[in-house]
Structures are given as C-alpha cells and as structure tokens.
Amino acid sequence: MEIREPESAAAERIREVVDSSMTTSFRLSPAQIDGLVDDQFADETVTDKRENDEILLQVAETGAEIEGTTVAGFAEGRLEDGWGELRWLFVDPEHRGKGIGTELYETATETLRDRGAEHICATVLEANTEGHDFVERLGLEHDGDRRVEIADESVVNYVYTEPDVDATLPGSTGEDATDEEFPDTERV
Q1: pTM, 2 dp
Q2: Rounded Cα distance, 116 and 129, in Å
C-alpha cells in the first residue's frame, strides 16, 4: 500500500470511496449523503483543495497484490493556528480491516506535524456510527461538539483531541454544539 497525494484523475474514485463509506457507516439518508458528497467532494472542489497549501489530501492506494491497484482510502486535513485537524477519513468498506485507516491517520497526522501542527484533533460527524470508535481506538478523547453547516444542513461534529492537550481549538468557545466553526465547515 502506498499513501500519497492524489492526482487529479483520482477525484472520481475519491467520490466513490466517500459515497460507499458513508452509505455503510453513516446514519444519513441517501439524499443527505448525495448532498454532502456533491458539496465536499465534487471534482472541482477536490481540485481546489489540492491547490490549497493549508489543506492536506492523501489517498491510500493498494498494491497490485490486492486485487489490482486502486484508491482504497482517503484523508483530508488542514493546518490552522498550530492545530492539525483531520477533517475527513474514509476507507472503502471492501478494504476495511487491513489497517488502511490507521495508516492513513498516522501518515496524515505526521504530515500535519511536519507542516507545523503542535496539536492534533479529529472531527467526526455525529452520524458517523463507526468513526467515533475508530478515533477513540487511536487514543483521541472526545473534547466537545460543534454545530456546522454542510450541504445546507446543520449537523453536529464531535471533536476529538490527543489526551492532556491544554490548548484552545481555533474557533472554539469551550461550549458544546456551538455555531462556531473550526476552522470552517468541512469535517471528518
């Protein structure tokens, strides 16, 4: 498996991985999933994110030994005010259980630290039934909630941070389910 920045040709496969992962793991209607995928992962949106130096995009690509080479996972992060935030992490359900999510998380957070992140957090949509367990298994702790707008819908994100972090998240008021955005509306 190789983890690397995606090429522009990978945008369609990223959308497929995101859609499949959300359909399997999120308590959202098909219309909500379609809206979120269209809003956050349209080809032009992925292209814009690829060109933004503050945003980290990585894909996990399987080797030929696993049913041919394909993008099996995707992670998006960003750096702001000393924080590295893992906003989205998806693994194609057909490739789960192989350590892809863990390797994506570790590589993304290491890259964010290399770019200057002093602290790491991950945000997980409330509707992501498997995401909460995943980040807790990685050692992150629930540190509050935020209400954000995604695809014209108000949703709640759970914010997870490393243990014993004594720093204020950018945009945070320290209260749960605020209308504050960190740092903007996209999340894990």
Answers
A1: 0.84
A2: 31
Residue 161 · residue 141 · CB < 8 Å: yes
- Cα gap 138→156, rounded to integer Å: 21
Q: What is the residue whose two structure tokens read 């990685």? A: 138
Count CA atoms within 13 Å of residue 135 on its CB side.
29
Tokens representing 91? 């693994």
The tokens of 130 are what?
A: 């498997």
User: 146: part of which helix (H) or strand (E)?
Assistant: strand 141-150
> pLDDT tens digits, residue range 77-94?
999 888 999 999 999 999
Q: What is the pLDDT of residues 3-31, one digit of tens each?
A: 999 988 888 999 999 999 999 999 988 99
Both tokens of residue 60?
A: 């996990």
Of 96, 14, 99, give the one whose Cα is nearest residue 50: 14
Classify strands 83-91 and 119-125 as parallel, antiparallel or unpaired.
parallel
Residues 6+ apart with CB under 8 A from 103: 1, 3, 60
